[in-house]
Amino acid sequence: MTNGASTPGMGETLLFLTDEQVRKGIEAMFFAYRGFTADPDRILEKMDYGRAHHRAVHFIHRSPGTTVSNLLSILGVTKQSLNRVLRALIDEGLVEARVGRRDKRERHLYLTAAGAELERSLSDAQRTRMRAAYRAAGPGAVQGFRQVLEAMMDPELRKQYQKLTEGGA
Amino acid sequence: MTNGASTPGMGETLLFLTDEQVRKGIEAMFFAYRGFTADPDRILEKMDYGRAHHRAVHFIHRSPGTTVSNLLSILGVTKQSLNRVLRALIDEGLVEARVGRRDKRERHLYLTAAGAELERSLSDAQRTRMRAAYRAAGPGAVQGFRQVLEAMMDPELRKQYQKLTEGGA
DNA sequence: TTGGAATGTCAACAAGGCTGACTTAAAATC
DNA sequence: GATTTTAAGTCAGCCTTGTTGACATTCCAA
Questions:
Q1: Which letter does DSSP use for residue A47 in this model?
Q2: C19 C1' – A98 CA distance, angstroms?
Q3: Nearest to B18 by CA among B4, B31, B8
Q4: How far is residue A11 from each of residues A17, A21, A102, A119, B79, measured CA to CA in Å?
Q5: Smallest CA–C1' separation from A83: which nucleotide?
Q6: Is the C-beta atom of B146 closer than 7 angstroms to strand C?
Q7: What three-state secondary structure class fits A67?
Q8: In this complex, do A158 and B31 lie within 8 Å of one another by their Cβ atoms?
Q9: Of A35, A152, B20, B30, which has the highest C-beta tally within 10 A?
Q10: Tell me: the pLDDT tens digits for A87-138?
């Protein structure tokens, strides 16, 4: 593939984008992701936590009572890797793991007050930047942004994403 | 901040986005970035390289003859970290480091034929997914996508990005 | 000529991924 | 009721990729 978009006869939804233009999108993702994580990273560093802790806290906040295996499938890491992070969060009183009522093998995860406070400070920082970016880009841009990102996901991850965010996108 | 957008009197460029909606954008970034790196990661794994090598190869391709310190500032890592990666690429004949003509302290970095081949296979994979996402999202979405990403970058990184991509966005 | 910049390198360390092996408890199934 | 499967946790060890700190070399520029 050298310049797919300039080849005629590629179907009705053809976009006339050169490889160079697509490449710019790739670099935009790279640089933007750095910005995306910069604010939480600064907060986490002070507390001796990392991005892995952030992700766990985020999704526990998002789905209170979620099980360990559910979290594993969302985060896409091994249980050993998640366990290291989760143990730290539990030991330090940010997360509570309750034994399941129906199925006692399961652990249901909840943020404690302290955990919720950390989550709030992390997501406030991240949302502030996000909101500023939306404002700078304008109302029309937001929808396109989300559409492209969604289309970029692996189908499996897209399902997870849609399940999480369903109800009033 | 609980719901900035619903508070009246926030200025003329106000976007009526709830915290929940902004949060979905955050999750979209998270899941999309996984997809974004998935294809190159698969290729790299076979060759015993990692994302760090990919980034170096990408930006050397992008700016042939770039110096080590310029690459450092783009990648935002320490020279020790970059050096490890660069040494591997040079030792294995993917990158060539030429001593500067004017300033002999500088090393100018170039991809060899083998390096260019790897770069091509990585970026083909990544561009294919990107192009598919653009196609799925539609023409209008692409501009919004880029605008939001650009607005999300740290100002310093945005300058780097714009310098790289200037001339026909 | 001397100070500082660009580069490279050594050593040591940490976070956060991974695999593999194994245990425990409880649910599910035969 | 016995067996198998599932959910979770744990131990050990490995890899990549980031970090600091110290130090050497080379060479431009004031």
A1: T
A2: 29
A3: B4
A4: 14, 20, 52, 46, 47
A5: D9
A6: no
A7: strand
A8: yes
A9: A152
A10: 999 999 999 999 999 999 999 999 999 999 999 999 999 999 999 999 999 9
